[in-house]
Design a protein that fits this description.
single chain; about 5% helix; globular
Length: about 130
């Protein structure tokens, strides 16, 4: 199960109902996923844990594709498909990407530069 590390127990952002398509252009689709807390009266200081799902449906690879993300400092690659194989937790645990603050894109105040191989799917979890 993919879940972001946090101080309080929470649902994985991939099991919740929250979905926001933030980018759909030229064969690349990106959307945010999140799970709301079970009790809406429970305060969440940083908001819900977020997952960014990025799909490249083209035969083009992009060494640096910039996607708009909510204010944050870092995202961790949790899962990626490359050349038909799946890289998951053990393979990609140390891949962390830093956000570029103040560079707005896709309706968000920050951008996240990601590498997108052709015909791939990647899932990033917000860590900071």
């Amino acid at each position: 199960r993919l879940s972001a590390t946090s101080a309080s127990p929470s649902l994985s952002p991939l099991v919740g109902d929250g979905v926001h398509v933030c980018h759909a252009h030229g064969g690349v689709l990106a959307y945010l996923r999140w799970a709301e807390v079970a009790d809406s009266r429970t305060p969440q200081q940083d908001g819900p844990d977020l997952a960014l799902v990025v799909l490249n449906f083209t035969n083009s690879s992009f060494p640096m594709y910039e996607l708009g993300v909510p204010p944050s400092s870092q995202w961790r690659l949790a899962l990626s498909t490359v050349n038909g194989s799946v890289l998951s937790a053990g393979d990609v645990a140390d891949i962390k990407l830093n956000v570029t603050p103040g560079k707005a894109a896709h309706g968000f105040a920050c951008t996240l530069p990601v590498a997108l191989p052709s015909y791939c799917a990647s899932i990033f979890l917000r860590t900071g």
